[in-house]
Design a protein that fits this description.
There is one protein chain. This protein has 13 helices and 10 strands. The longest helix has 44 residues, at 269-312. α2 (20-56) packs antiparallel against α12, α9 (269-312) crosses α11 (327-360) and α9 packs parallel to α12. It is elongated, with a radius of gyration of 32 Å. The chain is of the alpha+beta class.
Length: 407
């Protein structure tokens, strides 16, 4: 058996080598198909890793009480007409709730940041209190978060995200340095460790600055705008109870009657995750359709060229049968030839996908998976076998006498 397989492989390989250009062109569909499936897989996995890292900074046990719902069917103008959530609302809320492990306000503005001749433009500035740290999973590369005293007095101190600190202070320790935020001087007291997120764009904590909210109000006059109240449950298991209590307390703060609908929204990470999964699901379906179409075209190409090969080698098949080759051997030979052509296309597509994934990684995060490589090889092999079945069967059932007469 091994001898037959070895002989079939050598004959198939020689036939492919003898028609190099034709074989290469035949594999193009497989190359595109395998390249698509591997590239799509690496890109989705990379984006997924980045999203999970970024979403973890929001916290699975954290609620965001806001004027607007992140995702809702409610009309925007209705939400816009809701009363703002004020700092006083936050103070009342904080004094009434019992379950949360931490409660902090959050107000955001966008300003340019300068250090000497370096400028970072359109940076998100988050104002909050010292308790904000307890609502996050932040860890520090150096320094610290602002203290309760600095928070209450509205001191001009700042904590920098990792990437922002790297850009502003490439060769210096930022701690103790003075930066300009919107023209006002702030002393850097801390630098966060890398949180990692490209999907969240400018909201990426690595690119943000955190300052006391009273300092934000003092310099930028944003106390007229609605703030967000960040609430951290004592555990993920108590998130729902914390949400129920937060809604009841917030209705009390707003003076809402039992029949009145809430004029605020409670957002959480789960809503963002659902939207993300729906979006990725659509991308996967689109990618699988393109991949399937490419593989179908590739399989038709291989089948076509294998039929041509059977025609061209009809006399050779007759000779082989005349000297003892069975149908099984002929069938195996042509199936092997089709699968080798397909596998060559798969390997070329795989190499191309790995190279492209490194290029794409400069713009969108990618992550090459071993499972994707194995899947690409299996797809190539199966496509080759399926596309070679009909031509191989045709070759196997040829009559040796008629084949020897074929010109």
């Amino acid at each position: 058996m091994f001898t037959y397989l070895k002989e079939s492989f050598l004959i198939s390989f020689n036939a492919i080598i003898a028609n190099k250009m034709r074989s290469f062109l035949t594999t193009l569909g497989i190359v595109i198909g395998v390249c698509s499936v591997v590239l799509m897989s690496t890109a989705i996995k990379g984006v997924d890793n980045s999203f999970q890292q970024g979403i973890s900074s929001l916290g699975s046990d954290v609620l965001y009480i806001d004027k607007f719902a992140w995702f809702s069917n409610e009309e925007f103008w209705k939400m816009r007409n809701r009363p703002n959530i004020t700092y006083e609302d936050f103070l009342k809320f904080k004094s009434l709730v019992k379950l949360p492990s931490a409660v902090a306000p959050q107000s955001i503005t966008v300003r340019n940041i300068k250090f000497r001749d370096r400028t970072a433009e359109s940076i998100f500035i988050t104002g909050s209190t010292s308790e904000y740290l307890a609502t996050t999973n932040f860890t520090f590369k150096s320094g610290r978060f602002f203290t309760e005293m600095e928070s209450e007095s509205g001191r001009d101190v700042a904590v920098l995200g990792f990437e922002l600190a790297e850009n502003l202070f490439p060769n210096l320790d930022p701690i103790g340095m003075t930066i300009k935020i919107g023209g006002y001087s702030y002393q850097v007291v801390g630098v966060l460790n890398k949180q990692g997120s490209t999907l969240l764009g400018s909201f990426n904590p690595d690119k943000q600055v955190y300052i006391p909210i009273k300092s934000l109000f003092k310099h930028f006059g944003l106390n007229w705008r609605s703030i967000t109240i960040v609430v951290r449950a004592p555990s993920s298991q108590l998130l729902e109870e914390t949400k129920i209590e937060a809604e009841q307390v917030m209705r009390q703060v707003r003076g809402l009657k039992a029949y009145e609908p809430p004029n605020f929204s409670i957002n959480q990470q789960e809503g963002l995750t659902q939207i993300y999964e729906q979006t990725v699901g659509v991308i996967k379906i689109g990618g699988l359709f393109i991949t399937g179409l490419s593989l179908f075209v590739g399989a038709i190409g291989i089948m076509n060229i294998m039929f041509v090969s059977v025609k061209e080698r009809t006399r050779e098949i007759g000779i082989r049968k005349a000297i003892g080759a069975t149908r099984k051997i002929i069938l195996t030979q042509f199936l092997m030839e089709a699968s080798i052509i397909s596998m060559i296309g798969g390997i070329i597509g795989l190499i191309l996908a790995v190279i492209l994934s490194y290029v794409v990684n400069q713009f969108v995060p990618t992550s090459v998976q071993v499972s994707a490589v194995i899947l690409a090889i299996i797809i190539s092999f199966v496509t080759g076998i399926i596309s070679g079945l009909a031509p191989a069967y045709t070759a196997a059932k040829l009559d040796p006498v008629e084949s020897l007469r074929y010109e």
